[in-house]
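Appendix B, example 12.
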Amino acid sequence: MRRTTLVPPVLVTALLAAAPPAAAASGPAPGAPAAAVSAGRTAHWEPAPSAPWDLPAGARCDVPVHGEPVVDEVVRRVLETRPDGTARRVAYKGDLVVRVTNQRTGASYDADASGTAVVEYRADGSQFWTVLGPVLVGVGENGGNLARGLYLIDGVYTLEIGPAGYKTVTMAAGSTDDLCARIG
């Protein structure tokens, strides 16, 4: 089932990258271009595409993993900016399906990460996500309240990413799907 997405493409890149989210080099920066911001928000939805990514064995799964969007219709809208014009709160929506592939065996799974989210980008580099529906979340060793892994989290929940990248999922209702197990 497809859902409207408010999933920042930064999620796929930043949540899966080995570096903390604030330091992730790939993917768009959380700040909105000043020209696109009027009265503290963008006047329209703008494309927010996801980039392919690779993770070495042990980073999230026991095997090396490649992720590639096969459907990516994600757009974003800045809801609130800081005085310097950078984004403070951003909404994301649009279909996002990521093919997650075991690079050793070629086994793959198409993860429908078409959830909805509003993300608060904090001045200290942390993020607070309010989410409805499935989102792809990667957790490193001792990097969150979930075990190391790559998950499709579905339901109603919040995701807090600390300044150092520690991820805390607080589930109101929902489920987690272990994608590492799916692609073995």
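The chain is about 5% helix and 45% strand. The two ends are 24 Å apart (CA to CA).
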